User: Which sequence fits this backbone?
């Protein structure tokens, strides 16, 4: 069995609001709007792709120092409610390079409509081993993150989501 390739990834990401499967500008902009409600200090700046197109999606600078980085994904299977067949949050092995930097790191997973997101920090991600998973007839490397190590945010969280994600906050995303 072979591992998922960059070409396969192009086929997986089908969103009407994207020019291609790697175009996550709207997703990143949505998260920046959310962070702007959290960081109201004038000394906080956001920079998309601070290390180039193959690096993290976002750098958050506080007092002109890189404080933490963020990578953003969107899951088409997650719409109004958390999918019943998802028993954990999957962190992709190909993103492990983002954990090797000294800065704090957070992985953000949006639902399809960009109205809810899950956040998992570096400290939680590194606790889990990387394993092989079968995905669409190929192998992919992932870390299976427990719901207990993830935080869920959104304005209309379902009762099921609140039960699964003990760390949740009902909050407008914008």
Assistant:
């Amino acid at each position: 069995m072979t591992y998922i390739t960059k070409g396969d990834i192009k086929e997986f990401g089908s969103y009407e609001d994207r020019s291609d499967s790697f175009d996550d500008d709207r997703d990143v902009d949505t998260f920046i709007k959310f962070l702007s409600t959290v960081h109201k200090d004038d000394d906080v700046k956001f920079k998309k792709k601070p290390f180039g197109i193959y690096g993290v999606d976002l750098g958050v600078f506080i007092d002109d120092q890189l404080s933490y980085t963020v990578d953003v994904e969107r899951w088409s299977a997650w719409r109004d409610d958390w999918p019943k067949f998802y028993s954990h949050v999957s962190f992709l092995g190909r993103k492990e390079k983002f954990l090797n930097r000294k800065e704090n790191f957070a992985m953000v997973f949006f639902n399809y409509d960009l109205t809810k997101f899950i956040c998992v920090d570096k400290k939680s991600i590194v606790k889990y081993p990387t394993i092989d998973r079968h995905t669409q007839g190929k192998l992919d490397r992932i870390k299976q993150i427990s719901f207990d190590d993830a935080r869920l945010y959104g304005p209309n969280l379902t009762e099921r989501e609140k039960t699964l994600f003990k760390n949740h906050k009902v909050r407008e995303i914008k």
About this structure: Residues 54 and 168 are 30 Å apart (CA to CA). Residues 6-170 form a domain with the Trna Endonuclease; Chain: A, domain 1 fold (CATH 3.40.1350). The beta strands are 44-48, 58-62, 65-75, 89-92, 104-111, 117-121, 130-135, 138-145, 151-154, 167-170. The chain has a mean pLDDT of 90.
